[in-house]
Automatic annotation (TrEMBL):
Species assigned in the record: Rhipicephalus microplus (Cattle tick)
Swiss-Prot/TrEMBL keywords: Autophagy, Cytoplasmic vesicle, Disulfide bond, Golgi apparatus, Membrane, Mitochondrion, Signal, Transmembrane, Transmembrane helix
Entry annotated with the keyword Oxidoreductase: no
TM stretches of this protein: 187-211
Family note: Belongs to the ATG27 family.
GO cellular component terms, A-Z: cytoplasmic vesicle membrane; Golgi membrane; mitochondrial membrane; trans-Golgi network
Membrane topology value: Single-pass type I membrane protein; Single-pass membrane protein
Subcellular location: Cytoplasmic vesicle membrane; Golgi apparatus membrane; Mitochondrion membrane
Signal peptide start-end: 1-18
Residue ranges occupied by any MRH domain in the UniProt entry: 26-180
Protein name: Autophagy-related protein 27
Domain of life: Eukaryota
Pfam families: ATG27
An example Gene Ontology biological process: autophagy
Amino acid sequence: MFALMPFLGSAIFALTLGLEFTAADEKCLIDGYYNYESLFKSVWRAEIKGHCLRPTSTDCSWYFQFCNEVPVNPCGIGHACEVNTSGLDPLSIGTFQKILPLDRSSFAVRFEEPVQGSLVNITKCKDKKITVNMIFRCDVERNIVVGPGAELTKINYTPLIISTDCERNLTVPFSGACTPEAPTDGLSAGSVLLILFFIALLVYLVGGILINHNNGARGWEMVPHHQFWSELPGLCVDGCVFLSSTSPAKVAR
């Protein structure tokens, strides 16, 4: 019994570790056929002008890290971080939460940070939660490339959108946010023509049978234009024989 205790402890530890990795993986997975895996290879840095969360800072830089463990983030792995223009005095402005699909042409990476303790007097948010969203929007001409071995990569963005003092939305043009076109609703022209053809054929057969039945026809004679349809195979054979007999090779002979 006691010999099994170390084994059971190892099994429980492995199971717990596996559950943690599964939860972390789920945060980084979204549906929609986005091509976003290249974003996991680096920590991202954006230069911010006039929208820093510290009220005493006009310009600053933000670090964003998600779905990797590259050890270059001043605020630690998995955080959004604000530093001054010298790259010092790091302030965590969010912990990575998850990747969210927004529509067929954009998705967001969300960071959230509760403002409490010493942060109350440091940021513009006072006692409210800080939310920072990296919104990647479709632009087929803007690909984001991470160089070999690059742990920190500068990212370009469109003008910052501020919802409140405590929320920042950073929009990044990115070709990986462009998903394949959804199939159009409705039927194609060919499908519509086929449906109309079979409806007309059904009306022709049913209507003709009813009319012929009322006129006293029975059995095969109820089929509309039954004589024509019975002679059609023979007419086709005669046509093929005629064409073969009048071919240029035989005429030349």
